[in-house]
Each structure stands twice: as C-alpha cells, then as structure tokens.
Specification:
The chain is mainly beta. Helix content is 6%, strand content 24%. Strands 1, 2, 3, 4, 5 and 6 form a 6-stranded antiparallel β-sheet that branches.
Length: 181
Amino acid sequence: MALVAGTGVFLALGIDGGGSGGGRDTEGASAPDTTPTTAASAAGKPCVPVADPLPAGAPEVPVEVGPPPEGLLVRDLEAGTGGEVTPGDTVTVHYVGVACSTGRVFDSSYQRGRPATFALSGVIPGWRDGLVGMKVGGTRLLGVPPDAAYGSAGAPPAIGPDETLWFVVRLVETSTSAVEP
C-alpha cells in the first residue's frame, strides 16, 4: 500500500526508514538487532490532550478528549472559498497529526516547512473520505478511527496498533488527477 517511500510522510504510508545504508562501511560492526518489537495496542484507550509542543505555524489540534470516535469525524474549523476536493483529486495541504492515546504529534508538514502533496488514491481512507467536499482555503478537523487509518498493524514506531488519529488539515490546492481511458 505504500505510495511514497522514504518521505517521512505517514499519510501516504511511506514511512522514512532513515536512509538506505548504501555505501556505509560495516566492517567490524555488529549485526543489527532484528528481534521484532510490538507496541502496545491503543484499543480501548481514551483520547488525551495534545502533549507535544506544536511545530511553528501549526494550528491547535482540538482533540476530543475521552472515548475515541467510533467512525470518521469530519468538522470544518474554517470554511474555504476555493475549488472543492472530489474523489481522485491530488491535494496540497498543510497538516498536523496527533495520536489519540498519547497526545503525541507524529507528523506535520509544518515541521518540514512546506505543504505536502498527495493523490487521494494513495492516502489512508480517513483522509480519502474526509477531504472530499473540502474547499481550498479551508481548515478541517479529522478524527480517524483505526480502521480508516493504520489498523491493528499501526505505523511503528510513531503510531501504535489500533490508534485513532487526529488531524488538522489546511487545504492549499486541489487538482483533478488525469485518468487514463
């Protein structure tokens, strides 16, 4: 399911592994520990307030403290006035993502200092479904349950199994993707 490998952007399921290791001198180095580690499941854990400082320029993330949403939560924080996202579009967004059970910021375009561009066909279902209908210039809160995010696998190490995710997304641009006949 990976769309963008190695970018550090969780939404596109392309989690940065820290480099390829190509060209490194490994002589005399011990073999890496390949023992699998399993993060604790977030299932049944309540959502907590944001625990990390937000990156410069990032909006507040109004996490709904308490039981996580059972379905996708979509709430416009600021209505946009530009073009509207339709299924299959490519979007350019600024966003910040917070894990429900820990309050930790796990990803943010603000931290990288530039918006990110994604084809809706390559992002988690909570984004694919939650951004349709949003207008350019708008800001939207998404509460994404595990089944519309990373499910029981999570996206280690930042997103544990069965984690609900909160996002604030500001839509910068949308464009219809060309579809081959």
